[in-house]
Amino acid sequence: MSEAFYEPLGGGRFRSTGHTAGPWDARSQHAGPPAALLGRALEATDPREGTLLARVTFEILGPVPVAEVEVGSRVVRPGKTVELLEAQLSAGGRPAMTARAWRLPATEAPAAGNGSAPPPARPAEETPPPHDFGYGHAVELRFAAGGWFEPGPATAWTRLKVGIVPDEPPSPLQRVLAVADSGNGISAVMSWDEWLFINPELSVHVLRPPAGEWVVLDAATTIVTGGAGLARSVLSDETGPVAFGSQSLLVAPRP
């Protein structure tokens, strides 16, 4: 993939390309690309064989501009078995997004529990984005259930058309993180023209790395009067679930 969400500038700095632009404001990034970039940094932080990032939580501290960003990471809590990692993305001299991840050893236990149902068949045709924005054209999406203008739960097959950085295949985890933030978008229950439903955080619990380039996003949104909004997602490959995502939602009338 020669095209990418980011162009490395050296020293942990990256230039954000137009592919990162999100649906709410063309000057701000969709949270998927910076989540994948932070995931890339976490994967490269003192890597250990036979482990995986079992949970990654992102705090979105404000809009991430489509501009130069800087990424750094470290081990917060080292350990022989379980480790806590941390990464931060800054823009314009301020922290814009942070990530914390628990790194666990891959289990040797036999498979158990309800986690093997395959997703519905992949549709033959791509679904165009609801309007013109960079990220919407950088990720191929095919709805198997629901749709952009059908309120309620939805299932969509996704595939990255561009890399996270040029000429580097995205890792399985990066493919998941790049689309996990879209759960609230594909399962919207309120009008895009009248309401904002923006998540200040994203948590992804990983079961295993996905196989292949397709990641299926099965999402549902719940909004409670006098309470809050929540989008929940199951992410799968062609054989079954690989991760679970959740997003708390800021729900407000659109200015």
What does this structure look like?
This protein is mainly beta. The chain has one domain (6-106, 118-253): Acyl-CoA thioesterase, double hotdog domain (Porin, Beta Barrel). Helices cover 12% and strands 44% of the residues. It has four helices and 13 strands. It has helices spanning 32-43, 134-138, 172-180, 183-186, and strands at residues 6-10, 13-16, 51-60, 68-77, 83-91, 94-105, 139-147, 150-160, 195-198, 201-206, 214-223, 229-236, 241-253. Strands 1, 2, 3, 4, 5, 6, 7, 8, 9, 10, 11, 12 and 13 form a 13-stranded antiparallel β-sheet that branches. Helix 1 (32-43) runs antiparallel to helix 3 (172-180). The model has no long low-confidence stretch (mean pLDDT 95).
Attribute tags:
single chain; 255 residues; mainly beta; Porin; 13-stranded antiparallel sheet; 4 helices; 13 strands; globular
